[in-house]
Design a protein that fits this description.
Blueprint (H helix, E strand, L loop, with lengths): L6 E6 L4 E8 L4 E8 L5 H5 L7 E5 L3 E2 L21 E3 L2 E2 L12 H8 L2 E4 L3 H11 L2 E7 L18 H4 L5 E3 L4 E7 L4 H8 L3 E7 L11 E4 L10 H13 L3 E4 L1 H10 L3 E17 L5 E12 L8 E7 L5 E6 L4 E4 L14 H10 L4
Parallel strand pairs: 3-4, 4-6, 5-7, 6-8, 11-12, 11-13, 13-14, 14-19
Antiparallel strand pairs: 1-2, 1-9, 2-8, 3-9, 10-12, 15-16, 15-17, 17-18, 18-19
């Protein structure tokens, strides 16, 4: 637990204030305030690059009870905490897990990330649902609002902050997939390597169209998809080649934009491990892991594209596919870390398409 009892105020852009107690680093922070309904996986969520620039609110009341893996653990989704801050109701001071030697408080403190506990996160979540996602800031006692500007990650090219800056190769195999890194989770790389695919992870603005590959996977990532102009331009050229292309989360939105469709901002997004998605033309409904604030406008899809999955809660588009070519994408995370593995087979589908690429 924190060594000192210090008050912290979470202030939303509409003026609403919630007061709690600091943990992690005692420092101000600002960003887009979003909530996740996941019961577990806080360590994976915090290291998911899709949360870059966001203050993460956990709706589950008890957080931190199983600690955090060691710094060199491969379990985490990136090499650092990506969220700008963390808000929880009750911070556990009794951590117990054989492979997780650190407390959540110690981890945030070491990474320089502020947290606040003791806040009524259910009331906060209701506010975000009613008003919609808002910007906010964490203000330690004695820090004035005027000294902490609210930063909107959707107005900047935040993808450039989390993308690899060099080409990285993973695994070996008869087939090669380009992973366009817009903030890719490590689990996506693992899912392909485990299936015997060589993965070439490239920067988000890298032009791979003249290189040797069998398919492209466009990764998840943070921010507004319309900010990723260079990624979209290269993706348009890749689609013209006719080889398999698969998108996940932000990658789905980018594939839609590259095809000529449009995206829009959801009121409060989908973040958690319990989102039900229906597959078109089948009786199947899968529980999925999600983390996105934007969606595809189905009315703007070109005639040669169709909706593949829809969200059973709000009817928003959760997947698209081309009617004839091997192009498809999903808003949810088939790598499912954290979350259910209902849609893990979508990686098998993509790998099978690579077999016919040449």
């Amino acid at each position: 637990m924190p060594e000192a009892f210090r008050h912290v105020t979470l202030e939303l852009e509409d003026g609403t204030r919630f007061q709690g107690t600091a943990f992690g680093r005692l420092a101000p922070a600002s960003g887009e305030v979003v909530f996740t309904t996941g019961m577990v996986g806080y360590d994976l969520s915090l290291t998911d690059p899709s949360f870059r620039g966001q203050i993460l609110v956990c709706t589950f009341p008890l957080i931190g009870n199983y600690g955090v893996p060691a710094p060199d653990a491969d379990r985490l989704e990136s090499g650092r905490i990506q969220a700008a801050g963390l808000v929880v109701s009750t911070l556990s001071s009794d951590t117990s897990h054989a492979d997780h030697p650190r407390s959540l408080h110690a981890w945030l403190q070491a990474e320089g990330v502020p947290g606040v506990h003791g806040i009524d996160t259910r009331a906060l979540t209701l506010r975000l649902r009613e008003r919609g996602t808002m910007l906010g800031r964490l203000l330690p006692e004695g820090v004035a609002s005027v000294d902490v500007p609210m930063i909107d990650p959707n107005r900047t090219d935040v993808v450039a902050e989390v993308s690899t800056r060099e080409v990285v190769r993973h695994g070996h195999g008869a087939k090669r997939a380009v992973l366009v890194d817009c903030g890719a989770k490590r689990s996506i790389v693992r899912a392909l390597v485990q299936r015997g695919v060589e993965v070439v992870q490239v920067p988000h603005d890298h032009d791979y169209t003249g290189e040797d590959w069998d398919g492209v996977l466009v990764s998840n990532g943070p921010g507004n998809p319309e900010q990723c102009r260079a990624t979209i331009a290269v993706l348009r050229r890749a689609l013209a080649l006719g080889k398999p292309v698969f998108g996940i989360c932000l990658g789905a939105q980018l594939l839609a934009l590259a095809s000529g469709a449009r995206t829009y901002k959801l009121r409060y997004g989908h973040r958690g491990q319990n989102q039900p998605c229906r597959e078109a033309g089948t009786p199947r409904c899968a529980l999925t892991s999600q983390n996105h604030g934007y969606a595809i406008d189905p009315a703007t899809l070109p005639d040669d594209w169709e909706v593949w999955f829809t969200n059973a809660n709000d009817g928003s588009v959760e997947g698209i596919r081309h009617r004839r070519r091997p192009f498809s994408a999903v808003q949810f995370h088939p790598e499912a870390r954290p979350g259910p593995c209902d849609t893990d087979g979508l990686f098998d589908r993509f790998v099978a398409q690579l077999g016919g690429a040449k």
